[in-house]
Amino acid sequence: MMNKYSTSFFTEPLDHVNRGLVFLCERGRLFRCRRAALIVGFLLWLFSPSHSIGVAQSDLDAIKRATVFIYQVQSLANDLVVKCVSTGTIVSADGLILTNAHSVLPSQTCDGETLIVSMNVDLNEPPAPKYRAEIANADQGLDIAVLRITRELDGRLIAAGALPVLPFVGIGASANVDIDDNILVAGYRDIGNQAVTVARGTITAFISEPRGGARAWFKTRAELPGTMAGGGAFDSLGQLIGIPTSAKYGRPATEANCRFIEDTTGDGLINSSDHCVPTGDFISTIRPIRLAQSLIRGAALGLGVQIHTVPTEMQLSTEAPSVSRLIFSPSVVDGLPSTVVGAMPANTNSLYLFFDYHNMSPETVYELRVTRDGIPDATFSLPPVHWSGGQNGMWYIGSRDQPWPNGAYQFTLLLNGLAAASQQIVVGGGADNSARFSNIVFGLLDNQGNLIGNGYILPTGVTAYARFLYANLTAGTPWSTIWYYGGAEVGRTNDIWSRGANGSDVVQLRPLGGLIPGKYRLELYLDRVLSATSDFVVAGGTGGPLPAVFFNGRYVSASSAFEARNATASSGITEAVPAIFALFDWQNIAAGTEWTIRWLVDDLPFFESTYAWVTLESGSDFMLSVNSPPDGKYQLQLLVNNLQILAIEDSVGIGQLPIDRLAEYEGALLRGRVLDAATLTGIASVTIVLISEDYSASEFEWKAEQVFATAMTDRNGDFQFARPLAADTPYSVIVAADGYLPLAADSFQFTADQRQVDITMELVRGYLND
Amino acid sequence: MNEPFQGLVSSGDGERHATVPVWRNIVIQLALIIALCLLLLVLSEALALKPQDDVSRILTAVLLLFPPAVWLAVAVAPEAQSASPRRRLIGVAVLSALSAAAIGLPLVQDFFRLEDWLPLETVFRRILGFALTAGFVDGGLKLLVLRFTIYPDELRMRSDAVAYCLASAVGYSFYLNIAIVWQLQPSLAIAANYVLANLAIQFASSMFIALGLAESYFGNAFPLVLPANIIAAAATTGLIAPVFTSIMSGPLGAAGNDDQPLFGILFLIAAICLTAAVTFFLYNASERREREAFVSSRDSDGI
Amino acid sequence: MAFDAGPAPAVILTPRQRWSMVFSFVLIGLGLIAGANLRDSSLNQSLIYSNVEAGITARYPHRWLLSEAADYVFRVEDTAQLGFNTQIELRTLPVGPDTSERNLLDRLTLRRSQTLIDYTVLGYDIYVLPDDNAAVTMSYSYVSRDTSPFLEGVSAIVAGLDVLMISRGQAVIVSFRADASIFQRERAILDRFIQSLEF
């Protein structure tokens, strides 16, 4: 299928071939020849290595250079034993690396404590270990981790600013990705034994989940071995749009995805008694980069959020994870099923599987296998990935805007490799005109009898109301409502339908003692068949359109948490402070209620995490802090059921983030080789001085302030400037080495389209033997 | 070329030269050496032939041996047929080479450490630096060798000074060439350049020394004439070496730079031709003056 | 006209001819002396560095790259050097009444051991300053490596010498570093630098 990248139909050399053929044909005035030329050109394009995506070679090289290999190792005596491996991508010049969390965070499978980063010295050779890294930010559920290079390979700390500017990739817009878009995936096909490779593929589907929304996952048909997990998926502009992600089970299932690479027992043999490094299965899912951006931002700014009010985390259940109540819905409304269906008509483009989950944790590996008429359907299946939701609740997985071919579908959910539940649905047949309920929303009634509220969170009170739509109903049909609180039935009505065929109606729950805080559910049945269901939360007190769950939010600046509790609220912190503290009061929140902390700086989130409420039901001075905040405008948002309940804002310093020069680096990467003109061999340790655009070579007075950058040649005479050269900027260059005639040049400038420039300089000895 | 004071003697087999003609031989030698260097340059640069290492080493050895071989064939061998042979040519060449090895090169490299400071200096200081160091070291050593081997006993006519100075140049440059090839192992094109450069420098320097010696000895010139020629010899060294290396180094641009061996060799050819022409002109003028003085004194003596 | 070939009779040089030779060799000698002078003037060319704030003036080698930073007052390095760039760094540290010279040197050692590869103190000695006062020196070595992970940089063994001078409640530390193989040869540069140092 031709796509939007078809403008790069021919790669450059093939284009020349093709043009040459066309030219010959024109000269010979042979009509058929011209057609043949086009066919030949097409065939050449077809079999060319980069026909499918118009990424320039320089961008490819840049991607490869920014792709690193990561070992998670464990110190044993004087040895480092490899525990897990993954690919990573450098996303900032100062050494932030994006990768999968499961291979770098300590876990049962990957129990190493040190991360070694291997880089590509030569793009045609396997990477070489260069640095050690630490986890700067991670989300185990999303399976995304951001690492920061902090130490030399030998363990020495890298002083601030001492790390050379590393090649990094630009962050793309994963929201702009479409089905059938071509992508590149960079990574390593083996455990450090092969050079970095770039696989080509297409986006075949989007998978929806509550965490990540409609595009929680990209599906691809690129052939990606497990060691490429954590690498980068790139668009045609060479920008990072996703992270190939897969989960490894606690114990590798087969030798195919586990490698014995070293003698960890010290018995002189490498056999099954040694530790094997899990490589994982083939990957077909990609996490959109959008989900990693707050993690990257938080890591880049060094902003870590600390929660001072304890406890914050629920104790993980010791019971096995499970799923139940598998239902299908054609659409999702605010994370909940719009209705419940047992079959879908032909030309279905949207289908979701909803289910309740219990005792889940980020270590849980779950998988959805979909078969159509008994044949595995790779498009709608989700390979094993880590659980990204909470411990208990309702979840969905599905897709929209993609055709579901007719057939009998079987959805099977697997938890930690074991089938947990399955459900079937048939797609096909005529339009669905059956009676149904749908679109349940919750609220309170105003004086005029209108439902008010936000739909899914109610304050504590006397009565909860639910409005729903009905369609195609006939009078006399039995229907019923069942209300649940915390999983237990608290109310039920059974009735005979006596209203019209189509319209909306309201039902209510008035429990004895009123609505107490917690999680509620309403199920609507038609003729004993579940037709609609929805959940809501009761929390807080009455306080307007939204319940007053969190209130009295304020920022304080203090040197410690103790001091912060007694400090007065600030309105603009003008000086640098060791930490800013955010405090708020809360009321009527039941244990287990999921709430979300989202923290933004300059309107961009740098922290977002969802927790189950575990502290007192009501209280004051819940405290969070951010250490060493740079200047900026900080906003803390607190959400329940994805609804923002409270937002507090304050500024630090000038109220704007400092400009990150490194992040804005664009331009030409200048590298090359310095040769001895006599021998044509590289000269080692030659310093190349790049003078800033404000000075010419003749004006250069050998002062560092006049220098834009320096580079030194390696043993082969190769050099590479750490800082990219700005486009259309006239730099000057001086190369002075003892024994050689100096070279100097002004107007050393490159255009914006020159991403990488390779030059060769030949130095002539400045003396004869005389 | 006009060979002043060139005479013929009669033998049983016919006529033969009383002395071997020097200037003509110089032209032949230089032409052959330049031709070989140009050939190697064209082969390796224009035709981009990259001989295997072994072949390259052989060709470099041929290149190194070619100047002394040509000199032996063109300048030394005919002396055996000469009625008045210059017997110490080989001795002068060998001693010059030995002096370069024992004194000249160590002095320039280890004492003056040109490598450490001269290449990064301005062009003027480089010219001055080369002249004051390498120029005087080379000139001084060659003069020393000539002084204690052929001066004044072997000087029978002006062309003897030229012939012996050429021998000194060939010997001295031969060692320098061996040293540079040994130390650098340069590519063939660059080796051709270096060989010709060393030869050009030593040839130019020696020709001025020859002029000075001839003028001092045969013309009984003012005592500062020989020192003036020594200065000229050092100055030519000072000029040729830095200008040659500068020309070899191509200008740097945004696309990098390349060396310019062709320009280098063309400069050397020009330098050799200019030096030969100037020194021959001065030599000829001196000789003419001496001949005229001789004729006028003979006329005045009534011979 | 024909010439006879045969051994030339012994020649007696005229005074002019003899003086020619004498003058020539004298000239050559003078030329070589001038060449040596030129070499020395080139190798010893220097520029003045002056920092009013720190109260420091010194002469540093011509064409060495000068940089100033928060960590040190100034640093000059020979970027034309092939291999590790020989460098002189000058930093000042406050000295308290209880601060000893060894305290200061130990502080440097502790800091460097965090970032320099195989940093080893080789010993302490005395350096006689131009005004005949004695300064404490600390010699050390470490391994320097090009930091770019994408190049095949070869490590160099660096020898260093810190000269610690205390004056008016301020410690001035001159750190001289050079490739260990040429350290002794280059040390003359340090001597010249300290000769010119005023603080």
Helices and strands in order:
The complex is a heterotrimer of chains A (770), B (303) and C (199).
Chain A: H1 12-28, H2 31-47, H3 57-66, E1 67-76, E2 79-90, E3 96-99, E4 114-119, E5 128-139, E6 144-152, E7 182-187, E8 197-209, E9 213-224, E10 232-234, E11 240-244, E12 258-259, E13 277-278, E14 283-288, H4 293-301, E15 305-307, E16 322-329, E17 332-333, E18 336-337, E19 343-344, E20 351-358, E21 365-372, E22 375-376, E23 382-386, E24 393-399, E25 407-415, E26 418-427, E27 436-445, E28 451-455, E29 457-458, E30 464-471, E31 478-485, E32 488-496, E33 503-509, E34 518-526, E35 529-538, E36 550-557, H5 561-566, E37 579-586, E38 594-601, E39 604-612, E40 619-627, E41 632-640, E42 643-652, E43 669-676, E44 687-691, E45 707-712, E46 718-720, E47 731-735, E48 743-748, E49 756-763
Parallel strand pairs in A: 19-26, 29-35, 43-49
Antiparallel strand pairs in A: 1-2, 1-4, 2-3, 3-6, 4-5, 5-6, 7-8, 7-10, 8-9, 9-14, 10-11, 11-14, 12-13, 15-40, 16-20, 17-18, 20-24, 21-22, 21-23, 21-25, 25-26, 27-28, 27-30, 30-33, 31-32, 31-34, 34-35, 36-37, 37-40, 38-39, 38-41, 41-42, 43-46, 44-45, 44-47, 47-48
Helix pairs in contact in A: 1-2
Chain B: E1 8-11, E2 14-17, H1 22-46, H2 53-76, H3 89-111, H4 114-117, H5 123-149, H6 158-184, H7 188-218, H8 225-248, H9 261-301
Antiparallel strand pairs in B: 1-2
Chain C: H1 15-43, E1 46-51, E2 56-61, E3 65-67, E4 74-77, E5 87-94, H2 101-115, E6 117-128, E7 134-144, E8 156-167, E9 170-179, H3 183-196
Antiparallel strand pairs in C: 1-2, 3-4, 4-5, 5-9, 6-7, 7-8, 8-9
